[in-house]
Amino acid sequence: MDRIGLRRHLPSLPFVAALALVVALSAGVFIYLGVYNIAADEPHTRAVYSVLESLRDRSIQVHARGLKPPADLASAQRISIGAGLYGEMCSGCHLGPGVEKSEMSQGLYPQAPELARAQDLTPAQQFWIIKHGVKLSAMPAWGKTHSDPLIWDMVAFVRKLPGMTPEQYKALVASAPADHDEMMKDMPGMK
C-alpha cells in the first residue's frame, strides 16, 4: 500500500481529537457522578481487580529490581528482631500461625495476604513492599518510620513464617528483643 492509500485508511486528526474529548468527558462524568462503588465491603468487578492486581504486581517487580538483600538475611538475630516487629506491626492484618482473624483483618479489601502461607515474592520485592507500602490496600509505607536494616529484619522473619507452627511463632515473637524504640533512636535520621 502506498502513502496515499495508507492515508485513506487512517482516521483524520479532527476525528481523533473529537474521540479523545468524548472519552475524557465520559470519564469525567463517570467520576463526578460517583458511579463506581469504592466501598471496601463491595468487591471490585473481575476486570477492575485484574487490572489493579496486574498493575500492583508489575510495579513491585520493576521497582524492586536491583535491591540486594544483606548477606546475613537468614541470621537468627535478624529473624528475632523481625519477629518482634512483625508481632507489633503486622500480625493484626497478616496474622500468623495460630493467630485468629482480627476485626481489622476481616474488614480489609483487598484482604491482606496471610504471610504464613508460602509467597512467591523475592526478598527484594518483600523489602520494597514493606518499605513503600501499597496504595489502596491499607499496607503502610514502613520506610517512613523504620530504617532499611529493620525492614530487612522484617523480611528475614516473613521468609521464615511459612511452615512455622503456632508454637514456634508464639515463642519467637515472645522472645524477640523488646527495645525497638531504642534501636530506632540509634539509627541515623530516625527519632
Q: Average the pLDDT over all residues and give the rounded result.
A: 89
* Count of individual beta strands: 0
Which percent range describes the beta-strand content? under 5%
Tell me the major beta sheet: none
Number of helices: 10
Using the CA coordinates, give the radius of gyration. 23 Å
Structural category: mainly alpha
Which series of helices and strands comes N to C?
HHHHHHHHHH
The coarse overall form would be elongated
List unreliable stretches of 5+ residues. 187-191
* Ends apart, CA distance between termini: 68 Å
Q: Helix coverage percent of residues? A: 55-70%
3D architecture notes:
This protein has 191 residues and is mainly α. The protein has helices spanning 3-9, 13-32, 46-64, 76-89, 91-94, 103-107, 123-132, 148-160, 166-174, 180-185. The radius of gyration is 23 Å and the shape is elongated.
How are the secondary structure elements laid out?
Elements: H1 3-9, H2 13-32, H3 46-64, H4 76-89, H5 91-94, H6 103-107, H7 123-132, H8 148-160, H9 166-174, H10 180-185
What is the structure about, briefly put?
With 191 residues, the chain is mostly helical.
Can you give keywords for this protein?
single chain; 10 helices; 191 residues; elongated; mainly alpha
